[in-house]
Structure formats: C-alpha cells, structure tokens
Amino acid sequence: MGSFFTLFALLLASGIPIALALGLGGTAYLYLSDNAMMAPMLPQRMIAGIDQFVLLTIPLFLLAGSLMNVGGVTDRIVNFARAMVGHRRGGMSSVSILSSGFFAGISGSATAEASALGTILIPTMSRQGMPPAYAAALIAVSSVMGPIIPPSITMIIYGVLSGASIGQLFLAGVVPGIAIATGLLTYGTWRAKREGFPVTPKMNARERLTATRRTLPALILPLIILVGIKAGIFTPTEAAAVAVAYALLIGFIYRDLTAERVWKALIATALVSSSILFITSMASIVSFVFTLEQVPTRIADLMLSITDEPLMILLLLNIFLLILGMFLEPISILILTMPILLKMQALIGMDPVHFGTVVVLNVVIGMATPPVGILLFIASAISGEPVTRVIREALPLVAICLGVLALIALIPQLTLFIPRSVF
Description:
The chain is mostly helical. It is built from 22 helices and no strands. The protein has one domain (about 55-420). Helix 17 (about 310-325) runs parallel beside helix 19. It is globular.
C-alpha cells in the first residue's frame, strides 16, 4: 500500500484536486499491484458509491442554507446576536460565537460559515478595538460548530458510509456544539475583561424584539428538522426537502428572495454538491483498494501490536484524525478512512453514534488546528493578518475545543443522552 500513499501524496503536492488524486492514485495502484483486471470494475464502484437515496440530503440541505444566505439571513443572525449580547464588554466577540452557533443550524459547513461570517464580523470587531488577529482566530475556531450542530453535511456523510442513524447523529451533535460555544464564550468574556475591550450601546426593547422577530423563523429550522424526523413525519431526506420549502417560504414572505437570488443559490448549490458527490464517487475507488488489500485489518493489527487498551487505541485514533484534519476536508477524510474507522470501532466496542460524533469532532477541529488548518487561512485572508498571528491567537481557543473532544470521548452519556431519550 506504500505505493498508493506515495502516489496520492505526489498528486496532491502537484496541485491536482483531491478528488482526482484519490481516483488516479487508486487506479494506478491496481496496475502497479498486478490487479489491472479489476480496473474495469471501477466505474461501477464509483456509481455505487453515490447511488444512495439518502445522499439527496446533501444538495437539498445545501440549497436551504444557500437560499437563507442570499436572502439576508446571515445579516439577521448577526443583528439578533448583537441584540442579545452585543452590549456586554467585548460583546462583539460573543456576537461572533453565537452567530457561528446559529449559522451552524443553517449551513452545516465550516468553510461556508467562516467565509460568510468572517466577511461581516472580522472588520466589525477590528473597528471596535479588538486585535484583528484575535477576531480572525475567533471566527476560524467558532466555525468548527458548523459541521457539528444539526443539520450537518459531515454527519450525513458519516451516517451514509457507516450505516449509523443520521437522526441520532444529528441529535448527538447538540451537546458538543453547545459545549464548544460555552467554552469559547467563557474565554471571550475573560479576554474582554482582561484587555478592556469596548462596550457597545445596548439596543432598546423594541429593537431587540424586531431583531428576534425577523430571525426566529430561520433559527427554528433545526428544530423543525429534528422534531419531524423523531415524530416520523418525514425521513432525513424528506426533511431536507422540507428545509428547502421552508427557506423559500420565509424568503418570499419577508420579500428577501428574488428570482435572481434563487438562481444564484441554485448555481452555488450545484457547484458545491457536484464537488462533494464527485469526491464521494472517486473515494469509492480508494475504499475498494483498501478492502482488496485488507488495509483496515493491517492497521488494526498494527495498533494492537502497540497497545490493546481501548482508551489508548482511541487516543491514537484521535491524534491520527486531528493530523489528517489539518490537511484534508472532513468529507474526504471520512471517505478515505471509513473502512479503517469501522474496524477501529468494532475493535474498541464503542457505540456507533458515540464513535461517529467523536470522529466528526476530530476532523472538524483539525480544520482549525495549527499549523495548516484551512479555517485559519480563510480567516487570515479575510482579516489581512499574517497567519502566524492568527495561529497564536487561536491556540487557547483550539485547546478549549480539544478539551470538549476529550470529555465527549471519555463520557459517552454526554453524546448519547439526547439520542437515547428521543429515539
């Protein structure tokens, strides 16, 4: 298998997109390992990888989020958060964290969240006297809530690949998302008091009521999805279609959507969805190669040769996923490593929903982990600050996320309480 990983690394280093690197690396490996007769099976494997009804949730949830974004919901969320906590010392830092949590219930994507909110909030925080590097770090790390709080595209992919219940995975992400938000809010409040960040004027009661009224329809979307799935009113795929209809309804009621904006949302959704599904189909080739070469079994044997303690195996797996998260998108990591992950889950005997939550937490935190987390570079580009300064400011924030990860990994009840109570 060394030749595959070498080819894959060389293709990535040459600037080839990850989807093509996965497909070309897997195909080349079949020829190099004298398995060329299996190459004609690859198109069938690619189609089988995306020929799953539940994958329709991806473009539908993306479309719902895109419709709300072009319809001005991002601005409303920021205004609502400002109405609630903007008057506190350094309140804009709290506004950024709460906005990330609220936006997560709409977008399901960390990079979309960092880009959309960073453009609005980083300049605002800078104008109010906060260090631009700190503002950028806050947006970057807060954005990890995007793929954790439901609806989450990463959770959907994990559920499709592992067979775990998507509804339960959605619910399992609630506590980790709230825990990260709470930890970041605590740090932001302490930092604001220590450095004397400015206080902004408090909105009057009428302004707060208006902000709440205009934002509430968007904020209850995750609740509609979860309640509908639990009550058996609709499946996760149907829930995604309901989300699109709901986004269109509130967009036209508030007169924020036009035909031009809907078209813009459709184009954006098509581009992102095709990218995700193309990666999924190409990664099916790698999954086929891994199965052919019994890679999961070999890695399991390697870990058992190091330790047979479930906690140590889980620790090694966490480190492995965090490192991958620095370099690759979460969906690519899941598709690439799923055969190995399922073997590890069986090895340590973890609940599938608990294990899936830990895995997703790892790969999304890796996106904000120095030195090469992609969210840090997005926030750095928006702020104009050198990425080294953003990294310095991000370190304590990432430490909070890692603390939450440790708690979630070690105390299954934190993750499983809500899914077991509801289902």
